[in-house]
Design brief:
Helix content: 25-40%
Strand content: 15-25%
Distance between the termini: 33 Å
Largest sheet: 9 strands, mixed
Number of helices: 11
Structural class: alpha/beta
Length: about 375
């Protein structure tokens, strides 16, 4: 991403503003589609990163079989746009969610949910398939690989029948804790291996396991895919500072920046910009990620801390910044940054700007 071109394009729009470089994003979409194809797996990208009908259509045009979503709001928005193959990767617990899920099941051709509780599976409408969540290392939700998952899946099959069991799913989120490339590869191996081994045990008992679905951008390019049927990366579409630090994406593969304006220079080694925690993600920083983003073209600057409306940028020497200067910050976490903005400014190949709404923005 060229800072001068971005600043020229958005200079009169006001800050803070989230900007997507359309060419870089398109290259990311193409690269992941080729990775999935070369690995012999289906691509079901996680749409929680972009929340955009336009981007979803581009992913499907690149060969994605459907979308993964985190919320029913996302599922409903994409279903309304005729995306007819959805995976809700969050357990739908409670009557309000079940009512919405039932209505959703009537609108799409194929719908599945990820869960780790037999009671939740039992409450689902009959048309909905189940992917059983396996904990391969993140220790968030899911049963442990091997015997714990085998026992749980046997129980769920007894309750809802084998035809509705699509397979096993996991998220290798522990890859975000990797301190180096061997640790990232190890996490990817655990993610894929936990599903493959467990599926083998289930199949030996006569239980059909049609899908083995793994996720996460940090593991997509290093996971062993033998036996895996589907991958669900999300962040790759825009990239972020975490992916750069993890070695999962290069700096020039980051398509999303937040443009901020310097509003104060109270000390030669400190400047303050107008993009705080309401414009930049304040969560999930990986090992080696010292600040809250990367200032494009200025490796000497650190986004040291955030308050609601301000970000403090520091330097070991002089920042060289003046009041009124614009800076580009690649956020630590693209997904939560996007959700902060009602719309993104998309920089086209010609250098112009058009607005793209976050159609599925929300939290439930």
């Amino acid at each position: 991403m060229n800072p001068e071109a971005v600043i020229a394009a958005v200079g009169g729009l006001g800050t803070p503003i989230a900007v997507v470089d359309e060419l870089v994003m398109e290259a990311n979409l193409e690269r992941m589609a080729k990775l999935a194809s070369a690995g012999g797996v289906r691509l079901r990208p996680h749409a929680k990163t972009h929340k955009s009908l336009e981007v979803a259509r581009r992913q499907l045009a690149h060969g994605a079989v459907g979308l993964t979503v985190a919320t029913l709001t996302e599922a409903e928005a994409f279903a309304a746009a005729d995306v007819d193959d959805l995976l809700v990767a969050h357990p739908p617990v409670g009557e309000p969610k079940l009512r919405r899920l039932h209505a959703l099941a009537e609108r799409v051709r194929r719908l599945a949910v990820a869960l780790d509780d037999v009671g939740v599976a039992r409450a689902l409408p009959d048309r909905i398939e189940v992917l059983w969540e396996v904990d391969t290392g993140q220790h968030r939700i899911g049963t442990l690989p091997g015997r714990p998952t085998v026992s749980a899946v046997q129980e769920v099959v007894a309750e809802i029948g084998g035809a509705r069991l699509r397979g096993l799913i996991t998220h290798g989120g522990h890859a975000y804790a990797a301190k180096d490339q061997p640790e990232r590869r190890a996490a990817a191996g655990q993610e894929a291996g936990g599903l493959v081994v467990t599926a083998g045990e289930l199949r030996a008992l006569g239980i059909e396991v049609r899908e083995l679905s793994i996720g996460s951008t940090p593991t997509a390019d290093v996971a062993p895919l033998d036996g895996i049927t589907e991958i669900r990366p999300g962040t790759y579409v825009y990239g972020d500072a975490n992916q750069v630090r993890l070695g999962a994406q290069r700096l020039d593969e980051c398509a999303l920046v937040v443009v901020a304006c310097v509003v104060s220079t109270p000390a030669r080694d400190r400047a303050v910009v107008d993009a705080g925690s309401k414009a930049l993600s304040a969560d999930l920083r990986v090992p080696g990620m010292d600040g809250f983003g990367i200032v494009v073209g200025r490796e000497d600057l650190l986004v040291e801390r955030l308050s609601e409306e301000h970000a403090v940028i520091s330097s070991r020497t002089a920042t060289g910044l003046r009041v009124g200067d614009l800076v580009l910050i690649i956020p630590t976490h693209a997904c939560t940054t996007v959700n902060l903005h009602p719309a993104l400014a998309v920089m086209t190949e010609s250098g112009g700007i058009r607005w793209r709404g976050n159609d599925a923005r929300g939290w439930r």
